[in-house]
Amino acid sequence: MSTDPSVDRSAPLASSAPLITDTHLTSSPPTAPTAEPLPLVARVATLTAVVVPFAGFVAAVALLWGWGFSWVHLGLLLGMYVLTALGVTVGFHRLLTHKSFETHAVVRFVLAALGSMAVQGSVLRWVAYHRRHHRHSDTPDDPHSPHHRGGGLVGLVRGFWHAHIGWAFTPDPADLDRYVKDLKKLTSVRVASALFPLWIVLGLVIPSALGGAITGTWAGALLGLLWGGLARVFLVHHVTWSVNSVCHLWGSRPYPDADRSRNNLLLGVLALGEGWHNNHHAFPASARHGLKWWQLDASYYAIRLLALVGLAWKVRLPAARPTARNSLTASRQDGPPAPDVCLSRSGDRDR
Ligand SMILES: [Zn+2]
Ligand SMILES: [Zn+2]
Q1: What is the pLDDT of residue 330?
Q2: Residues lining ligand 1 (ion), CB within 5 A?
């Protein structure tokens, strides 16, 4: 196995190699400590912390309907939410961090720009942090694990805070650049990353301009900025951060060897499929995180749509239906036909 952290450890190696070569499946077990079930009170507290503020947001929207919120603002909020969240989930995460499919340089650039509008740091920094998270999942070197912050409820709250947003206030690890050596060779990613401030401004100007143009008023432009810009950034922020915090604390673990990550239904929906986080940690290179039919995975559907119109190819999936851990080590001959499974990994050059 390569020691270069910029190399996706789960990449298929060659067409003759088994299709699924996830580290968790083919090498020694993860070094993460054995997970202990959270106390009931901690689970209830976590669920409350996630659901109540979101319910409050929905209630605020309902109460403002007709004078501070309308169909126009709902459209701007949802439209910008979906576009920028997909920029993060499909672009930053599945394409650039894990190379779970391939695409044209232009699509890569657009996805990186959309993800940057979510205001979660430049794309290169985001990817470096996330690769570090996978490499050291739930060990003390994980940049945002909710564990290792002490025991009891106080330790849980401290861990939750650190995983959710506290980590962003700590200095960057010195070795961060090593994780994105490959991406720095891509002009599309390098330029998109350098233009991060521009994408932030555009992510606010676009909904504001649309709100003004649709309503023909300055108040419409202001409300467009408020709902499609600021409120949308707030929502995408907390949903993304909840994948780091909630999805390492609360939910099911069908693949218990995959560190302490969890599948969380609520975030499976809100985070456009990213909440099936235990599945993802078990099979990080898979473009599909919702592995069962009922596990909604909007980001995977978006990738399928890109593939349908010829803008994505070599979409990587588990070789066999992952009903059991060992079924995923099967070679192609052992699994069902999977026409879009990647047979070999291409280079990192721009196309
Ligand atoms: Zn994780
Ligand atoms: Zn990941």
Answers
A1: 30
A2: 261
